[in-house]
Amino acid sequence: MPPFTKGSPMSRSRLRFAAASAATLAVAGLLGACGGTGPAADSSTGKAKAAGQPVYGGTLTYLEHQPPTCLYLPAAGFYPNGGILNQITDKLTWQNPETLKIEPWIATKWEIDKDATEYTFHLRDGVTFSDGTPLDAEAVAANFDVYGLGDEKLKLPVAEFVNNYERSEVVDPLTVRFHFTKPSPGFLQGTSVIGAGLVSKKTIALPYEEQCRLRNIVGSGPFTVKNQVVDKEVDLAVRKDYDWAPPSSGHQGRAYLDEIKIIVTPEDNVRVGALVSGQADFVRYVQAYDEATVKNAGFTVYAEPTRGVNNGLYLRPGNSILKDRGVRKALQAGTNAKEIVETLFTSGYPVATSVLSRLAQGYTDLSKELAYDPDRAATLLDEAGWTRGPDGVREKDGRKLRLGVFVAGPQPLSKQTLELVGQQWARIGVKLEIRPADAGTQAVDIKDAEKTAVAHSMVGRADQDVIKSHFHSQNRDVILSDDEKLDRLLEEESAEPDVTERNAKVAEIQRYVVDQGYAIPLFEEPQVYGGAPYVHGVAFEAVARPSFYSVWKSERE
Amino acid sequence: MARYLLRRTAQAAFVLWAAFTVAYVLLQLLPGDSILIKFQNPELGLSPRQIQEIRAYYGGDVSPLESYATTLLGFLRGGFGYSIDTGTPVVERLAEALPATAVLAGSGFLLAVLIAVVIAFAAGHSRTSWIRGALLAVPSLFVSVPVFWLGILLIQVFSFRLGLVPVIGGSALQQLVLPVLTLAVPIAAPIAQVLARSIDRVQAQAFVPVVAAKGASRWWILWRHVARNAALPALTVAGVTFGELIAGSVVTETVFGRNGIGRLTEQAVNAQDTPVMLAVVVLAAAVFVLVNFAVDVLFPVLDPRLRAVTG
Amino acid sequence: MNRPKTGLLVASLVLAVVALWALAPGLFTAHDPIAGVPAEKLQAPSARHLFGTDAVGRDLFARVVHGSVHSLSGAFVAVAVGLLLGTLLGLLAGSAGGPVDDAVMRFVDVLLSVPGLLLALTVIILLGPGTVNVAIAVGTGSVAAFARLARSEVVRVRRTDYVEAAFGSGGRYPVVLWRHVLPNSLGPVIALTALQFGMAILAISTLGFLGYGAEPPTPEWGLLIAEGRNYLATSWWLTTLPGAVVVAVVLAAGRISRSIGRSTA
């Protein structure tokens, strides 16, 4: 599952995915531009936002939905991991979540040669890790040598956000150069993603098991780890000498808060109840049906867009029923995404109008092609030779039109969504067999198109490559693709240096995927947070991981 | 007595070994494995070769028998290996989780016994049939409420609505109140039920009216005669019920977001984190063996008729 | 002595109604338990929807009525597995004594020593989801409890004077076992059965809570309670009303089994 989604058993501590997930991030504060950076942001209490001058001090109690897993940096894509690592590490560059432009951070400037095989970064002077060692060219080189090449002996896998990496070169203490065997145009954005957080040389030299452990992660971020109770709580303390926020941040110097208590609270209603009753200040993963509870109490709902491949159903052509394009198109026409959103979700979950989110790069509007049309669905199924049986389920050659799908733990209200889709499909004579997931069975069966004909998933990432991550047969391969044309299109997109051309290619791919009936996009999935009215300055990176650098608390009313 | 203890110790060792083996075999039969779950997610884009390499790292590519022997030897030496899910030593995870669960389970069990005794004796003592009936219905009522539901309800009412006890933050003691209550209620039920039945039976026996006729108070009779006879089956159930505490702690710890063996178990099952699951099974088995050892030793003490047999 | 009988009557009535739900759900509700009307989602209880509606607009009462067949059969299977296997083992161990007793009880110890929930979870993953598989998993977890109790009762009864007398007067082993030991040991076992019946329903719902329930959209009771809990703050009826039904059924079963226990003990 995408690291950007709330993790399921399957999304636990992955290794390489972080790149695909390659979330961009906005670690340090986004000026005071708090509360809902994205257009989908939905804040009910405007008054709290106006509340005066920031004050220093105080503790933020943040309730997380799941415990962090392995904290090896390239595994940071998983939201509970990212929520911690985003506060304790810095990156070479900073991707502005509004413009998606790459801006300076630890690197003050950089040069890239014309074929993108050589990157030179000039580092900020005086930056130190929390163990006192300098964040210099040698440290950066050590980090990227591991992210780019992995380390067999230490069992450290390669990070997905670095491609074609050859070697590093320490030019002088504040200048580092990276060499690539082939053009690597995505590397600059790669240095800004959550998984590219910089850690001390001592940390990066540890074996995998040790780097998984939070206590061994020494970064240069605005907070440091003070205390950890595994699976329960992580306490972060402010780093008083922190003075290297991205230059574009309005707030410089140390973070406002003294401390952050991240407490794992898996029960949805306990998280929301604790927030509303004043026992917590900020919570992740507010379910759609709880948004009203939060708002009615005068609290703020932050619905942050994830800017990638939409939450949807992905149909696998390798399945013996779904190999027929007509059947896939029929299911697409027979699915009413609007009804799903209106029944189960809120305005924070816009109905999908394409494979990609409207905020994704290269998005193109395909809402006409995706219109709900049950009559056309029925016609298509008739034409494909599937006729209604006595129980209303269509049959062909004595075989029932039954398709299996797993409940996707990380997707919000996946079970209810699938039940509703099942109702809609029942009307056109298709039986959707919904299976609750246990991780082992799912890990085996999800690769089998016969058993798992349909996949419910999404991926967030603020880069054109997100569509390749989702569909390419060598990446996540959500449809278990055997379509060479699709793979070719995705590779062309990925290698295209010109932005306009690249976006055009992304549009072509979306059209192709919809035309082939590979995707039934449902909605643009946000990450939904709830915050107390006296909490100000929460910022989010491009795929909705929170940053607490600029957060401060005013007096409770 | 020494021979008896020796025999019991051998039995305990056998149970531990058998529990380990049964768990090991069951875990081997499960579809997929933790490495597959972690890495063979098609969305991660790892090639089968890379997964094979990772499996080799973790020693997951040796024959089942060889792996069984290695794991068993490791356990005998007190090394439980690494959690595949988090990469931390299993021993460390257990050590971190154990104290919290011990406190929770211990307090829960004490409270449960207290509740059970109060209910059973109040019912046994009561002369009014409808009060008796109502009291006897209480254990059934207790077990007919799902534990997770009870926990959530207690939180909603006492913490969120009335604001009496915080669930987030607050002192260690405050954090213990609601979970202990949640855990104790369903465990009190079977103990109370069996206790009440045994009291019934003894009360119906011929000697009770005789003793009562001699002027003994009903309370005195209950204590002297009933408690001793009733204690046997109640003790058996209590021993058995101890296992329920583990299940109870899984749910309670999840609902209250507490750290402990229960949470660890649930997460390990989810991720098929075999080393952790094996360690939990062996730990639970060890606790079980100890508790039941104690129960068995107490049996002859409570029932003189059994003394000759085991003594 | 009128009140207890009233209680028994009410209990029988509850079980009879629920049994009818399982046999002929169509008599009680016209709504479809699987296909809802999305526009009518999350409605509070009313004359049209007795128990209100859920997040997908399905009538909750219809789901409870149609779910009874899944839940009752699930609980029956679970208790049957535990009761049959457990009592047999306990009877064997308690009456045979000696090495047989030892062997059986060590086996039971192994079963007992593995936490029931962990065992149930493992069995479900092995067998796959589904009402019957979940029931078997839950039943496996209770075998040991039944065995231990049955054994302790048999040991106790065996030492009572009349059973010893029966042996003494030359009664054959199986006959004494069947005539004297079994009926006299049965009381507490039935008491435990009453509790286990409820526990089975609850254990199934606990598994649902942990994410190992029946396949959606099966309207199994435990799953209804487990999933409705998320809506406790906003739509109280989703977890409360199925919960009340379960409590009523479990209480009724307990009441009836107590009176059985009393007449046999």
TrEMBL record, chain B:
It is a multi-pass membrane protein. SUPFAM superfamilies: MetI-like. InterPro entries: MetI-like, MetI-like_sf. Residues 98-299 form the ABC transmembrane type-1 domain. Belongs to the binding-protein-dependent transport system permease family. It is found in: Cell membrane. Keywords: Cell membrane, Membrane, Transmembrane, Transmembrane helix, Transport. One of its GO terms (cellular component) is plasma membrane. This is Peptide/nickel transport system permease protein. Its main location: membrane. The chain crosses the membrane at residues 12-30, 97-122, 134-156, 176-196, 276-299. One of its GO terms (biological process) is transmembrane transport. Gene3D superfamilies: MetI-like (1.10.3720.10).
Automatic annotation (TrEMBL), chain C:
It is a multi-pass membrane protein. It holds the Pfam family BPD_transp_1. GO terms for biological process: transmembrane transport. Keywords: Cell membrane, Membrane, Transmembrane, Transmembrane helix, Transport. GO terms for cellular component: plasma membrane. InterPro entries: BP-dependent_transpt_permease, MetI-like, MetI-like_sf. It is found in: Cell membrane. The chain crosses the membrane at residues 75-95, 107-126, 132-150, 189-214, 234-253. Residues 68-257 form the ABC transmembrane type-1 domain. Belongs to the binding-protein-dependent transport system permease family. This is Peptide/nickel transport system permease protein. It comes from Streptosporangium sandarakinum.
